[in-house]
Amino acid sequence: MNKKLLHTVLFAWFRKHGRILPWRMRELSALHKAKKISKTKVSVLRDSTIASYFTTKWNRDPYTIIVSELMLQQTQVDRVLPKFESFIRKWPTVHDLSKAKLSEVLIEWKGLGYNRRAKFLHEMAHAVVHTHKGNFPKTEEELRKLSGVGEYTARAVLTFAYGKDIGVVDTNIRRIFSRVMFGKEAGQVDISTKEFFAVIDQSVPRGKGDPWNQALMDFGALVCTAKAPKCDVCPLQTVCIANLSEQKHGFRNYADSLATKNKKINIKKSGAKKIPFKQADRYFRGKVIDILRDGHQHMEKLYQQVERDHKLRDKKRWGNIIESLMIDGLIAIRGSTVSLA
To answer: Is 142 tagged catalytic?
Structure first.
């Protein structure tokens, strides 16, 4: 595909439809101002903010990027927004977070789920302050040594905080390239992960890694979505290999083809047994943490509350859940008393 065309089309789309998110700003005050002014002025602010991505070296705080990325893992943006602002307001710097107790971080994390992410952030803050003297690493290898920071998050820091021209390969971006360039769904592309990353890295326009990755993320979240892509309004519909291929097979567009395939898959899945989330260990782990956010509990009373309110009646399973939380460092047990770590 013509990379220049791809850049032109997606940047034009991003300038018009890109999202303003607090972790993309240098400070949260701009977002608070936006909430207090008229819709017309909000539109002006939005336009100037998007434009600044292309002209300004933002030098965002890596701490802000990592907090947002860990919160966004398997959690919707709408749920993350208020929690992110509250978290940054409470601990505005990595030094502030390093001084907090893990129990305080777990309490603040309420509503986001996957509580180990809160522990990872807490450990990350300690490592940056005490091992790296308050400075975040500037290489992917060193960043990935921080708790909770994998390949994707390390690349996000390098791009959004340090302006590196590399791809940030999240599920949205992987899906876009799989469809547009290979005509398949993510995971079905017949090349290695290393080769796939190389294709994405090579697409990054020089000096514009920051807005390029943001544009792709927003495009995947708003247009090239997982289950129901908006092919009718997609600015890439005439060059997308997946779309063009399905049109040759008689479908109006790729979205119609995908809907047909998903319907067949759902029919097959309907007969398969699936454990409801409210019966999964992760659900009960979360409920234990929720209860302990209000204060320490006697072990037996804690079990009785989970048994009564959430129908966990297997004592052996209960023991395994408590043990797993303790091993993960999320709770502490002193005698017969259980508390957040």
So the answer is: no
